[in-house]
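Dear colleagues,

As part of the handover before I leave the project, I'm documenting each prediction I ran so the next person doesn't have to rerun anything. This entry is a single chain, and its sequence is reproduced below.
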Amino acid sequence: MLDQTLLPLGLYHKAKQLIWDPRDIDLSQDVRDWQGMSERERDIIVRLSAQFLGGEQAVTHDLAPLLIAIRRQGGLIEEEMFLTTQLFEESKHVEWFERWCNAIGAEATEAIALSRPYRQLFEIELPAALGRLLDDHSLRAQAEAIATYHIIIEGVLAETGYRGYARALRDNGIMTGTVRGVELVQRDESRHIAYGLYALERLIRREPTLWDTVMDRLNALLPLALEIVGETFAPYSDDIPFGLDPSEFIAYAGEQFDHRLAALERGIAQSTQP
């Protein structure tokens, strides 16, 4: 019997209720708005979108071993069911950003090809942490993988990217289809982050020493995430499109990290209360 009280099953039900199709989003006004934007404005939006497209592709490639590891460690079917929705949604996010690039005629891959910190995170750290789970199903390996993806990549880096879209596009009333698509991606990933926090709490309850493992991993990757945020604005010197302020986004990324850590601490504390 399924345990309907478990958070992962509740997140699974939400995923069913909130399914959306990237093909349903009208980008015709976005294409017109795009033609009226300056080259620098276009460049920073392509740069941001390229980061998301590359990240979604990487996760679609790399996430499956987590599902395998949880199953091999006697995980609950409710968690496995949720993770099937996450795999589906990551694929859908690839479709969305690919469709967006095609609609406006952008070459997204070129914008991130030379980014050292981006490649370090998505081509080395992420596949190493998740690929390890194919052979190592230990709680420690699971904790490091979840901390890498659900907390740093989704909970810090992606959340900061969403703020970039909001400041550049939503606040200026342009590219409303793009804004809507990104909001739907963010809604999906809020469930992924919630699951990541739940899973880390579960792992740490089973093996309290994993707290140090998680903290070591988070503290090792946070500087890399902040470097990616800062590098996004580097090509524009002091004339950043849309009047964006890099210091705001660096601070916001740090705040998101603090929020995730505080939520994890609260969850663990509540679960250990008599």
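The chain has a mean pLDDT of 93. Residues 34 and 42 are 7 Å apart (CA to CA).

All the best with the project,
I.
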